[in-house]
Fold this protein.
Amino acid sequence: MPDIEVTAFNTSDWTFDYSQVVQMRGFGNEYTAKCPAYLIDHPEGTVLLDTGVSYEALEDPEGYGAPHMKAMRGMTAMTEDHRLTAQLDDAGYDPSDVDTVILSHLHLDHAGEITQFPDAEFVVQQDELRYAWWPDQTQWTFYLENDISPLRSYDYDVTVADGRYDVFGDGSVVCLPTPGHTPGHQSVVLDSVEGQTVILAADVAHVRDAYEKELCTAFNWSTEETVASIRRVRDLAREEDALVAFLHDSDDFETLSDQPGITTRDPSTN
């Protein structure tokens, strides 16, 4: 199995009440979450997991066609240095170097910079594409038309996955369906990062506490599917002795830098 290197880029900080990420827990406690995107260096290509938040959507919500984003500006810390393209450049990459973009799901904090990677292949689950255009009332604010409209364009190379998807065909970078947060949510299993299996679980759970206690957010698409996906990830992690990373867990982001083969970059701490 080829060795893989991973770089986690924090694209913004989101501050809100803890009860918003772990239902019925920590009312009144302020929590600041990271919003990373992961660059995966494989001998046969460069893969990106998620693209972070759209800087334009936060700077000019009305011009972006998302006026409700005004309310999110007060809870979001993002500068031009946080933009994924700026961080890639700082790390020595150009957007054209990215061969494949895996989208864990299409919420605004994961699919905000799709247009910056016009030459890449995009991998997204079929169930997610369907739901993104006709979401339930509880989730419609998390899908921005200008974020996801490129995926409907013939100018973009979109691979619509229907279940497990092996990016390189060698088992080293595998998309694993983990619905619950949304119908088409997927995690990514990496084998191997300096000999270790790493599960980039995205929003299977927002923080490790929710994962360990099988809790979800109030706005998740399905509580039942969320719990089933948490258990699926836990079983796989046990079988493979894998490291599991949760995208919005700030502690996870900090500890990733201590893992062999993984680097973290965060403009918020510069």
